[in-house]
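Technical note accompanying the year-one report. For the benefit of new consortium partners, we illustrate the data format agreed upon in the data management plan: each record pairs a sequence with a structure-token string. No post-processing was applied to the example shown here.
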Amino acid sequence: MSLVLRLSAIGAILLGAGAAFTYVAGWLAPQRLGPDRITDALEKHDGLHPGFRRAHAKGLCVEGSFQGNGTGLTLSRAAVFEPEPIPVIGRFSTGGGQPYAPDGRLVFHALALSLVLPNGEQWRMAMDNAPIFPVATPQAFLAFQLATAPDPRTGKPDPNRVAEFLARHPETQAFLDWQRYAPLAASFANGTYYSINTFRFVDAMGEQRFVRWSFVPETPFEAIDKATLAERPANFLFDDLLARLSEAPLRWHMIITLAESGDPVDDATRAWPADRSSIDVGTLTLTRAAIEETGACRNITFDPTILPSGVAPSDDPLLAARSAVYATSLARRDGEPAEPSALGRDPAARSAR
């Protein structure tokens, strides 16, 4: 990859993976790396935008339900897999800490979910449209932030610092290659969303299995031409989602993938082989959307370590402190005014245009 392309891709990660560090966080050594330091780094990259999330700042609330088909109970005792509908509050977003950024950027498309079980337990998920993450540890993420921080004189990352970082982190280069060549869904509705990290499922007998999951759409996949992204309307992804939901519900199947011996369970930069066993355990149905000023998702921290009985985190270091950064971001924006988002008009009026 030429230096120009490499810097362009790094810039995309700054808006996507960098902002998606709401999905990472450093807490392995609090005396050296804590949630405030990471949150400060995110604000430095994309600027301070009071009232908005420090990562994935541009988003839209959604509501619906999840209904298990009973198959998941063979893997986990979690009540969510019972064949009964569970209410869901969710959020679609694009990567980056700039709430008014255009949708036509090569960044993460994300889906976050909060499921409330009948017994009061909750399961929260934060997923991206990429099956791998650019870095494996919180320390590496902070190093990435420092290496790619815009130079005040040029407004762009220093190419020497970028090159040095990539030389030390081939896993990040692997992500850049994936982002450059993998097809990108043309809509939130036809994208697949991945847990990225590994979790443990615990069944009724106490047996544990390492798993990852994905939400696979019923809407047929259609790729967008990446060369035309910059030409798209500023809110084309969100306008498309609003229009689709105004016409009919949207559905995804939750697919659980089982690890086999030797598969990495503590490294989010490494994908599992494609031949691993997968099981369809239920269907997510989304029925309506709302802007964050009026929607139910604004003050939810989609902390993926909030888990029901029968689901537990793995030893992936990226999971250990996600809740700390989520909490830090929420505490900061909770004391700030809720500014109008880029989508800040009534969804019904916008989708009826």
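Partners are asked to follow this layout when depositing records. Confidence is low (pLDDT under 50) at residues 1-31, 346-353.
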